[in-house]
Amino acid sequence: MNEIIKKPYNKITSLTLTNAGLTEVPAEVFLCKNLKKLNLSNNCIKSIPIKIAELTKLRVLNLSNNEISQIQTGCCNLVNLETLILNNNKISLIPKQIIKLQNLKILGLSGNKLTKLPDELQKLRKLRQLDISRNELKKLIDGILFENLDSLWGGSNPVIEFDKEYYFSGRFKRLYFFPSYSFASNRDYSELSKNKGNIFSKNINMTSNIHTENNATKSIFICYSHKDIEYKNRIITHLKTLNYEDRDCKISEWSDSKIETGTNWKESIINAISNASGAILIASTDFLASDFIQLEELPRIMAGLNKNTHRIFPIVVKPCRYNNSRLKDFQAVNPTNEPLSGMSETERENMYLKLMDDIDKLL
What we know:
It contains seven helices and 14 strands. With about 375 residues, it is α/β, with parallel strands linked by helices.
């Protein structure tokens, strides 16, 4: 820990300790009295210590992807907190004391075990973004009079009660109900959850349970190492040809080259993966050695695959240990011992055409 914290404790305002194998919050963290941002995501932390309340200047706290089962009241004493991310834990109950977090603007509770939400949530007057997707909620927030909430993620819940008029009353700017949940019994919720992305970017027929999209488009996320950019660019050219064919939907490719200056690049990538119908994986040694691909992109892509919301299309472009990787059970476009780099131009082009055939069949 001391090797990571190299500044004097009172000089530290931002601290990131992700993927560190932590089972508890290190004691040294509580010595950083001027800490404003703390990221402890992707560890094995099981509880939030009461001492967290000593970090009175904390504005952002990220404890996502841990093993937390309970929100301690000490966390609710962080009265200056503006962002609290607790996604992908084991939380089943939100304490009523959460009402103390009156400066909270963003609250992430996705991927937990919540069965109901406390009424106190609606009293968080500055709350603007709420993610309660992938829980066990039979009812979302119907009828709750949030003062400033304008963005809600509520997909993949076993919803029974659902007031569609409430969500389309004009109070929300962004609604995300995708992915759908197999056992949701409410028909309105089930139909709306088939729409990827923000529902208000779609053309929803409110008089029936039928939804339509203008110029239906399916997005494909391209996962690659920058050292393999030549292969990515050629694949993009081939993808364009699909849009000039007689297909029911258009194909829109997305890679990090579409990230605009000034935008949050990591958030853009995560959103692109979430909204994609498929992912092309350009496999090579550089691909398999990339920390960001292995720790950030692939886990999200595989999660979508497990929920049947994604298709993956691996293609091996350079010699690599594909058959020893987490992708070993997934059929690549080409034989894994015959990478594109060892092929003639004609052979490579034929592999690209085979990839397009697979995409055309499955998307």
